Amino acid sequence: MGLLLKGILVTTSIQANTQQVHLSHKTPWLTLKHVQQAAKYLFLSACGLFMVFPFLWMFFGSLKTNDEIFSNPLELLPQHFHWYNFVETMQSAPFGLYIFNSFEVALFTTLLVLANSSLFAYALTRFTFRGKTAMFSLVMASYMLPAAVTYVPSYIVLAKLGLLDTHAGLILSNAASVFGVFYLRQVFLKIHPSLIEAARIDGASELKILWAIVLPQCKAALTTLGLITFITNYNSYMWPSLVINTADKNLIATGIRQFFIAQGNYGLNWSHIMAASTIAVVPLLILFMISQKIILSGIADNGIKE
Amino acid sequence: MLSVNNKMKQYWQLLFFLSPLLLPLLLFWVLPFICSIYISFTDWDYISPTYDWVGMDNYRYMLDDSQFLQALNNTLVFSLAVVIPTVAIGLGFALLLQKRFAGSSFFRAIIFSPWITPTVAVSIVWSWVFDSKHGLANELLGLIGVPSVSWFEHGNTAMFVVVLVTIWQAVGWTMLFFISALNKIPSSIYEASLIDGCSAWTRFLKITLPLVSPTTFFLLIVNIINAIQAFDQFQILTQGGPGGETRTLLYWFYQLAFQQYDMGSATATAVIIFLITAFLTSLNVWIGKRWVYY
Hints:
- The complex is a heterodimer.
- By secondary structure, chain A is mostly helical.
- Chain A contains 15 helices and no strands.
- Among the domains of chain A are: 1-18 and 29-51; 98-252, Orthogonal Bundle (MetI-like fold), CATH 1.10.3720.
- Chain A has helices at 2-23, 32-62, 66-71, 84-92, 95-126, 132-143, 148-160, 167-173, 178-189, 193-201, 206-214, 219-235, 238-243, 252-261, 270-302.
- Chain B is mainly alpha-helical.
- Chains A and B meet through helix 2, helix 5, helix 6, helix 7 and helix 12 of A and helix 1, helix 3, helix 4, helix 5 and helix 6 of B.
- Chain B: Keywords: Cell membrane, Membrane, Transmembrane, Transmembrane helix, Transport.
- Chain B: Residues 72-284 form the ABC transmembrane type-1 domain.
């Protein structure tokens, strides 16, 4: 593929050179710029294809029979679309429930993160109090903590609280987003203080100022933070796999792994495994399609980490 | 009296604003971190209620433990193998997609899309692609006459697959960061170089590359930190195998803590992971303060 592309690039650049020579006196219909453009599109399409290929392979694999997968492994498209695979997969494990669980945990975690990060960032930017610098340093220091360092004691904390194997335990233990505080603090600092001063003189409470003046000005930032928090939590695997034991409480990532390693699936039942993967991936791809503008510009314009 | 009342009111207000975040932060980050350090000096086995203080033994033992040293080495190899291509390819895509043109947002979205999807699910898809008997990779190799490879039975090829999957997921996010950095370069600099008659290549080497170098450095560090914390793809694709050849420090921590219940050694390993990331983060902050061009 690489060689082929190189070949195309070389020949196009030769063509382009010869073109340029006798283009100098005539109106050009094909310029170096056009050729470069074409090469760029060709190259980007090839790369794009590589990026989405696993999704296509997964989706079409989920519509084949296993016999077909083993006899014609190179065919991308199935001979017949076996939609029934999805029905069978949904029957063999409660994937609908897993997705619901993931949505529930991710949604409540996101709401909590949005609320407590806003409150905390507001206090950091608008209040003066003793220990403010220390408070910010504490948050900053937590930023560099790898989650793994906290897993063993966090597990014990959840056990002590009686929250092991519960969704509430997952939500609570993910509710502190250091990144959320950083990000919103940055955004809040850009808001002009005059509006807030005016509201204070009018006797508005701080909570009211945050809710009615500050937050409406940061809708884009809140949406970006919300989406990123939601996606991260929806996809998270390691911590939920440690906390959740009951099959019915599985999130989609832990549920799909159970299905993957279940007896008789691995290496033999690819069509159903791919159907399960499709079920896991599609909700997020849809969410991304709806919100891609916000997410992409949120990251590209502000430079967000994670 | 009024001022005391006022003080109390302010105090409660502050508590109201800070505690919703502070509570989970202390309970699930700060306190566990301190506990982890403490446990790493003990021989606690999770099941028994008692434990002994063993001092530095867990750390001293590591230096002679071939499994720990192998995991440390694997972590280093994995991080470098992921980070360098991710940053290079990310920059390449950013240069191609920096300016808006018909379809540029479409390509950006396509390249970024793997980041959105659950690592577990997409790793399962890749495990099929690299399946030794019916995988696409071997079928394609067969077309050009290369014999089948048992990808997950050899350390190098198994590591290659995990590296590939990780790069595939990380490259879009890296690209977006580079786009943000490229857009901040003042166009006047480019115009000046055009007047001076610089070639595109010189422009890239002498202007673009130095000006995005702080971002490049930032992305190198952040991608290394992410690579050190990679778990899901290892769990699905290799489980650290074969023979521990794809076992990273994090995976070793997981096995020690939640399969062998050797909490002392596990938390000691976690503390080492912490020290590595803390070092990299401080380096990042330190360099970031001194190395800003614009």
